[in-house]
């Protein structure tokens, strides 16, 4: 499936955001809950590195950009309503 076909399935909220849950691919531990817009979801799907929308800073946030603690995507799932995403990731460094 293409990135655009996947994005087309997502139901973004009125602010253009969707909940994104990062879960450790090995242990299933939830590492974080954040938000994505269509742009950051596309970037995540195309690069394989978790990229979020920072609501407080109102800008794109590539996880690990400054700390080096990146999250490498292994799998992505969409919930039955299309309004939440679960990413199985490999965490490099702290969460």
How much of the sequence lies in strands comes to: 35-45%
Q: Give the number of domains.
A: 1
Compute the gyration radius: what is it? 12 Å
* H/E element order: HEEHEEEE
Physical arrangement of strands within the biggest beta sheet: 2-1-6-5
* CATH hierarchy: architecture: Roll
Mean pLDDT rating: 95
Would you mind describing this structure in some detail?
The protein is 18% helix and 40% strand. With 95 residues, the protein is of the alpha+beta class. It has one domain (3-91): Phosphoribosyl-AMP cyclohydrolase (Ubiquitin-like (UB roll)). The strands form two sheets. A four-stranded mixed β-sheet has the order 2-1-6-5, covered by helices on one side. Strands 3-4 form a two-stranded antiparallel sheet. The mean pLDDT is 95.
What's this entry about, in short?
The protein is α+β, with helices and mostly antiparallel strands and 95 residues long. The chain has 2 helices and 6 strands, in the order αββαββββ.
Describe the secondary structure blueprint for this structure:
Elements: H1 3-9, E1 18-24, E2 30-36, H2 38-47, E3 51-54, E4 59-62, E5 71-78, E6 84-91
Parallel strand pairs: 1-6
Antiparallel strand pairs: 1-2, 3-4, 5-6
List keywords for this structure.
four-stranded mixed β-sheet, Ubiquitin-like (UB roll), 95 residues, two-stranded antiparallel ribbon, alpha+beta, globular, 40% strand
């Amino acid at each position: 499936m293409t990135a655009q076909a996947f994005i087309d399935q997502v139901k973004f909220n009125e602010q253009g955001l969707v909940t994104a849950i990062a879960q450790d691919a090995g242990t299933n531990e939830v590492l974080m809950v954040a938000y994505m817009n269509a742009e950051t979801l596309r970037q995540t799907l195309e690069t394989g590195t978790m990229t979020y929308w920072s609501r407080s800073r109102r800008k794109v946030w590539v996880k690990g950009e400054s700390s080096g603690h990146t999250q490498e995507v292994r799998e992505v799932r969409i919930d039955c309503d299309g309004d939440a995403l679960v990413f199985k990731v490999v965490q490099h460094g702290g969460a």
